[in-house]
Design brief:
- This protein is α/β, with parallel strands linked by helices and 540 residues long.
- The chain has three domains: 8-73 and 307-498, Rossmann fold, CATH 3.40.50; 99-289, Rossmann fold (3-Layer(aba) Sandwich); 501-539.
- 46% of the residues lie in helices and 11% in strands.
- It is built from 21 helices and 13 strands.
- The strands form three sheets. It has a six-stranded mixed β-sheet with strand order 1-2-13-12-10-11, sandwiched between helices. Strands 6-5-7-8-9 form a five-stranded parallel β-sheet, with helices on both faces.
- Strand 5, helix 7 and strand 6 form a beta-alpha-beta unit.
- The longest helix is centred in the last third of the chain and has 22 residues, at 471-492.
- It binds 6-O-phosphono-beta-D-fructofuranose.
- 6-O-phosphono-beta-D-fructofuranose binds at residues 156-159, 208-210, 213, 216, 269-270, 355, 499, 502.
- The site of 6-O-phosphono-beta-D-fructofuranose (F6P) has 14 residues, from loops.
């Protein structure tokens, strides 16, 4: 079954939401709480170690009902069925979208072209496990017979962001190996990493689904050349491994056939950390933890697949986001994790969310006349409180925010944890209630300063409150956002799994690079031509 191709604005629910929006657009959440003592409980989903409170949103019972109706009318259930069962839902690239199969149990039966992919997935998983164990234990050694101390992950986009975010997030669970990530084609990036490396004890993991990506191939070549200054050609087999779908190209680069970890076209780059793209995760935190991450994601898959929409975490979060994006015209969403471990989480989500849903042509090939893809940004709390929270509290823009927090800290320092969590709870409370003029006056504020000290409040937040940051809960959290992306793509009637928008810049960069070599700039606009000539003047 192909995905439904329903323009959401033509549905009954959408039209009713438009009417409903006119009625409730100025609703004050604090009044909604005052009117309904059950509101907090009613709009909270407790599932496993997740407690998701979405009551601090500008929604009423009626809003929620209409949003759920919208999900039905765009045939979300049917679309989910197509997603999980391996239909070719990435129609523009003619591919299945099966990152969920990578974390499915061994006895699942998920077919691509009539063939169950689970045996293949599990054979690669075994290879990841065996390889990780020999490297971590020190049994596998480098060309001078020393155990490995450093891993360099060479990749970009989905071949970098996922592993980098997870390795950082799970650093508490990390082993003795030092992990580096080289992504940018900026030579200063790779050289800064090289500075810290010893070729005798470094393992290079080249990750590229296509094995054609300029950044990754340039960095891999630079690192190979640097390695060969100390080692011999035949030593490459001991130090370079690759993850790719393009086996021939990997071999052409000089990686030994046994050192290739395959992946498949039905895994999108930005959803690939569950595949061999996660090799660096397995090497850094051990295969057992990597498997726990996958298991967590699988649990979220099961929840998403089976749960009623009204208590389905990814569905509810997606619907609320649609409400703000399409009816309140909110342009962006913030993700604020109250854990320093999730420092790279928003950056990671930016690719997932914006590369997937940053589209303006619908599944019928027509240009949309409604808003799609949200802009996503964020930083860990409390740092962000001292940076951009001013704008969220008192600025003119509506910025719905996800607050992610963990009840237990990993080192168990109660004093710090209580301080951290008091901020976590205080901020959503402050955003909800604000502070009105009478409260400001009651604080004895100097008259001229009163307007500046008022907080309007009524700023929406979701609280995603989790027991503890573990590989399993992180897997659930990532999968939660993956499914939110899917739901929103279905509602917006766009194709979430292609990314043609990244091509034009790549094409032009290729053309300009050739022009540098030929020293001849042709067919550019006047601004670009001036910039190119300025570059030439400064660098020749
Ligand atoms: O930015 C475009 C993109 O194709 C991403 O979707 C992908 O994650 C990244 O480039 C890297 O691609 P590859 O893994 O093929 O090197």
């Amino acid at each position: 079954m192909a995905l439904p191709k329903i323009n959401p604005t033509t549905t009954e629910a959408w039209k009713n939401l438009e009417k409903h929006y006119k009625k409730v657009q100025d609703v004050e959440m604090k009044n909604l709480f005052a009117q309904d003592e059950k509101r907090a409980d009613k709009f909270t989903i407790s599932w496993e170690d997740f407690y998701v409170d979405f009551s601090k949103n500008r929604i009423t019972d009626e809003t929620f009902k209409l949003l759920l109706k919208l999900a039905d009318e765009v045939q979300l259930k049917e679309a989910m069925q197509a997603y999980f069962s391996g239909e070719v839902i990435n129609e523009t690239e003619k591919r299945e979208v099966l990152h969920t199969a990578l974390r499915a149990p061994k006895d699942a039966n998920i077919k691509v072209d009539g063939v169950n992919v689970m045996p293949e997935i599990f054979s690669v998983k075994q290879k990841i496990k065996d390889f990780s164990e020999t490297i971590i234990s020190g049994n596998k050694k480098g060309y001078t017979n020393k155990a490995f101390t450093d891993i360099v992950n060479i990749g970009i986009g989905g071949s970098d962001l996922g592993p980098a975010m997870v390795v950082d997030a799970l650093q508490f669970y990390k082993n003795h190996l030092t992990t580096h990530f080289v992504s940018n084609v900026d030579g200063d990036h790779v050289n800064e990493v090289i500075k810290t490396l010893n070729p005798e004890t470094t393992l290079f993991v080249i990750v590229s689904k296509t094995f054609t990506t300029q950044e990754t191939l340039s960095n891999a070549t630079t690192l190979k050349d640097w390695f060969l200054k100390s080692a011999k050609q035949e030593d490459i087999a001991k130090h370079f491994v690759a993850v790719s779908t393009n086996i021939e190209k990997v071999k052409g680069f000089g990686v030994d056939e046994n050192n290739i970890f395959p992946m498949w076209n039905w895994v999108g780059g930005r959803f690939s950390l569950w595949s061999a793209v996660g090799l660096t995760i397995s090497l850094s935190v051990g295969n057992e933890n990597f498997e726990k991450l996958l298991l967590g994601a699988n649990k979220m898959d099961t929840h998403f697949k089976n749960e009623d929409f009204k208590t389905n975490i990814p569905v509810v979060l997606a619907l609320i986001s649609i409400w703000y994006n399409n009816f309140f015209n909110a342009e962006s969403e913030a993700v604020i994790p109250y854990s320093q471990y999730l420092n790279q989480f928003a950056t990671y989500l930016q690719q997932g969310i914006m590369e997937s849903n940053g589209k303006s042509v619908d599944r019928n090939g027509d240009v949309v006349d409604y808003q799609t893809g949200t802009i996503i940004w964020g930083e860990p709390g409390t740092n962000s409180q001292h940076a951009f929270f001013q704008l969220i509290h008192q600025g003119t823009k509506l910025i719905p925010a996800d607050f992610i927090g963990f009840a237990k800290s990993l080192y168990g320092n109660k004093d710090h944890q209580d301080k951290l969590m008091s901020n976590f709870f205080a901020q959503t409370e402050a955003l909800l209630n604000g502070k009105d003029k009478s409260e400001v006056i009651a604080e004895g504020t100097e008259k001229t300063l009163i307007p500046f000290k008022v907080f309007p409040g009524n700023k929406p937040t979701n609280t995603i409150f989790i027991d503890k940051l573990t590989p399993g809960s992180l897997g659930k959290l990532i999968a939660m956002y993956e499914h939110k992306i899917f739901v929103q793509g279905i509602i917006w009637n766009i194709f979430s799994y292609d990314q043609f928008g990244v091509e034009l810049g790549k094409q032009l960069a290729g053309k300009i690079l050739k022009e540098f070599k030929n020293d001849d700039f042709a067919n550019h606009d006047a601004s670009t031509l001036n910039l190119l000539n300025h570059y030439k003047k400064l660098t020749n």
